[in-house]
Every structure is written in C-alpha cells, then in structure tokens.
Amino acid sequence: MTNLQIFLDIATEAALSAGVVLQDYLGKVEDAITEKGRPGDLVTAADKASEKVILEIINRHFPQHSILAEESGKLGNQTSEYLWAIDPLDGTTNYAHQYPCFAVSIGLFIQGVPKVGVIYDPFHNELFRAAAGLGATRNRRPIKVSQTSELSKSLLVTGFAYDRRETKDNNYAEFCHLTHLTQGVRRGGSASLDLAYVACGRVDGYWERGIAPWDIAAGIILVQEAGGQVTAYNGGDLQIDSGRILATNGYIHNSLSQKLMQISPLSAW
Ligand code: IPD
Ligand code: CA
Ligand code: CA
C-alpha cells in the first residue's frame, strides 16, 4: 500500500468518526452557538467536538506531522513537510439552522501541495475521497467533472465570506453578473461541498474569495483528480493563502476566469 493510500484511509477514518459526532449533535446545539468575532461567524459545540475526534486520530497515527485546524489553529511539528488542514464542520451556519448542507473536510498538503482529500457529508452519507494519482470517488465509486463547455449552459456555485459587511470586495457584483450569464449560481454554504459537487459534476464551476486553507485543502485534490482545474481567479497558480479560488470542470475555466477579471477590478489577481 502506498503512503498516500494510508493517509487517505486514516483521513477517512477521522472524517467518518467526526461525521458521527455531527449527526449526534444535530438539532441540539442551540444553547452552545457563539459568534467568533464577526457577525454571523458561528461556532458550536459540534465544531469543537468534531475537531477533537479528528485531532485524536491524526495525532495518534502521525504524531510527527503538522496540523492547521480551524478551531485550534497550528499544532504539532511546524517544520514537517506534511500539513493536515482540517475543517471539522464546514457549513456551521447551515448546521446551526439544521439546513442539511455541511461536511467534515480533511486535506493533506505535502511540501505545500494538496495530495489527499476527504470530504464527508454525514446527513446524506456521502463520502468524497481523492489522492494524487489515485483518482476521485464518491462512496467508493469513481467520479468525473461535468462536460459543460459553455458558460451560458453552466450551473455555478459560490459563497460569501464573513467579512462581507466590511468590504466592497464582497463577491456581490460577481454573483449578480454571473447569475445573468449562466443557468444559475447557487450559494450552498459549505465550500468543501461546493468543491465536491464540482468534482462529481453536479455543478460546473465554483469561485470564492475570503476562503481559508482548511475550507479548500481537500476539495482541490478532489477536483483535480476528477479531471477539473483549480487556479487563481486569473487562471494562474493557486496561492493557497490568497483566500481566492477558481475551480471548474476545465471546459469553462477560461471563460469564467475572464468574466471574474472583468467584473471586479478588486478581484483581478
Ligand atoms: C464557511 C463555508 C461557506 C463559505 C465561508 C466559509 P464555515 O465555512 O464554507 O460556504 O462561504 O467563506 O467560511 O465557517 O462554515 O466552516
Ligand atoms: Ca469552513
Ligand atoms: Ca468550520
């Protein structure tokens, strides 16, 4: 078994265990919802309990690796070439409202490159997995991106960061324009599932600003292994800390990239 397969299997064990925690807490967190600083940026007891379970499993198997977890920050050996990026509950706002669109997201960077990704939606029992060179799957069956090649026939998905009330670079103009130019733009509320849905062809493209490494680490490799493309808005190399991502089926990549560059000068990088 290759190392990547081992990492994939341990990430799967962690994601499935965390998924059980999320299902257990669902509908029971009303008293334990707080804001993390910005209005609307919620954290619940479920986020914390889920992260605890994931950290225990990753630390037990890979004590020498480094970790970036949404609720705990940087942990472990920060000089390691292995970095686990963990979102224990992606879609907290949905979760707090019992809107069934949330997931656990666990990605592994090796020397800064996304290599392994597991996204688990416990409500719908959908497990998305990928590792570099090993393909992408949904519930253990291979998945591919869609073949839509015209923006006018595409369905897109995006999101709005928690700083949207404080900045003009809030993605509203992009959302409106692209709603006119396509068959529709969805706002799912879980970046990792947005990427998983690009990977399995339910949507043709996804873009977002203000996004964190733990939101997208797993989804990047999933889209790439499903045959899609992941870049910066301008089509150049993705900078993981830039907060911006463009992920598509590849066929609409250039046209969506061009539109994003035209629509918002603030987003032109
Ligand atoms: C959020 C979701 C949402 C995206 C936000 C993220 P959280 O993550 O992924 O779709 O639009 O930018 O912060 O806070 O639910 O883990
Ligand atoms: Ca998130
Ligand atoms: Ca989260």
Please describe what this structure looks like:
The chain is α+β, with helices and mostly antiparallel strands. It has 2 domains: 140 residues, Fructose-1,6-Bisphosphatase, Chain A, domain 1 (2-Layer Sandwich), CATH 3.30.540.10; 111 residues, D-Maltodextrin-Binding Protein, domain 2. The chain contains 7 helices and 15 strands. Strands 4-3-5-6-7-8-9-10 form an 8-stranded mixed sheet, sandwiched between helices. A 5-stranded mixed sheet has the order 12-11-13-15-14, with helices on both faces. Strands 1-2 form a two-stranded antiparallel ribbon. The longest helix is centred in the N-terminal third of the chain and has 23 residues. The relative contact order is 0.14. The structure holds D-MYO-inositol-1-phosphate (IPD) and calcium ion (CA) (2 copies).
For the structure shown, list the relevant keywords:
269 residues, alpha+beta, Fructose-1,6-Bisphosphatase, Chain A, domain 1, D-Maltodextrin-Binding Protein, domain 2, 2 domains, eight-stranded mixed β-sheet, 7 helices, globular, EC 3.1.3.25
